[in-house]
Write a structure and sequence with these properties.
InterPro entries: CheY-like_superfamily, OmpR/PhoB-type_DNA-bd, Sig_transdc_resp-reg_receiver, WalR-like, WH-like_DNA-bd_sf. This protein has 223 residues and is of the alpha/beta class. It folds into two domains: 115 residues, Rossmann fold (3-Layer(aba) Sandwich); 97 residues, Orthogonal Bundle (Arc Repressor Mutant, subunit A), CATH 1.10.10.10. It has eight helices and 14 strands.
Length: 223
């Protein structure tokens, strides 16, 4: 399970990331709303753990941002704003749960697991690029209607490319999609994924290529 922690307090963030990763979660960190918006636009998360008081605004605006851009998400709010009106505001805007600071990390873990049991309502969407199609809800790829089997990391790269078919996707976006938004990535790791993905595509069709713009990024191209 992959979580996004939106928290600007470095000490709190470090503690929570270590605690949650020990329990088996993959955790990405966003210290501002702007970074969090970029993260949920370019990446898929199972849950957003969201602070209310951020340097560039109220965290609940991320909920409305996700709704406006049709980015289905689960949200668990963490905040020092614990009075009833503030709790209701977050829940009415679409948060799945609300935990007031200070809190016991074990309670946070239980609440995360409870929220993860709830289904995310995903609108059916099929993205098409030449013979290549992507079922967004099912996270499945097809070439001329035939399923395309990929490794998880290759699928993540292709999913990011299909989010903007035919448009240049910066390598930083692809790296964050595959390895995590705030993780150090070896310079050759992405190239290895691209190479395997190209091979898999070429075995199924000659009509879709992955073009590289050296030092900038990659894009899908149709022959």
């Amino acid at each position: 399970m992959r979580l996004l922690l939106v928290e600007d307090d470095a000490d709190v963030a470090e503690t929570l990331v270590a605690f949650l990763e020990r329990d088996g979660f993959v955790v990405d960190l966003a210290p501002t709303l702007e970074i969090a918006q970029d993260a949920i636009t370019d990446n898929a998360f199972d849950l957003i753990v969201l602070d209310r008081l951020l340097p560039d605004g109220d965290g609940v605006t991320l909920i409305t941002y996700a709704e406006r851009h049709k980015l289905p998400q689960r949200f668990l709010l963490l905040t020092a704003l614990s009075d009833l009106d503030e709790r209701l505001k977050g829940l009415e805007l679409g948060a799945d749960d609300y935990l007031a600071k200070p809190f016991e990390p074990r309670e946070l873990l239980v609440r995360i697991r409870n929220v993860l049991r709830r289904e995310i309502k995903v609108t059916s969407e099929i993205r098409q690029f030449g013979p290549l199609s992507f079922d967004v809800a099912g996270s499945a790829f097809f070439i001329d209607g035939v399923p395309l089997s990929l490794r998880r990391t290759e699928a993540l790269v292709l999913e990011a490319l299909m989010a903007r078919p035919g448009v240049l996707v910066p390598r930083e976006t692809l790296e964050s999609r595959v390895y995590g938004y705030d993780k150090f990535v070896n310079a050759n790791s992405l190239e290895s994924q691209i190479s395997r993905l190209r091979k898999n595509l070429s075995e199924k069709t000659s009509r879709v290529k992955i073009q590289a713009i050296r030092g900038v990024g990659y894009q899908l191209a149709e022959e």
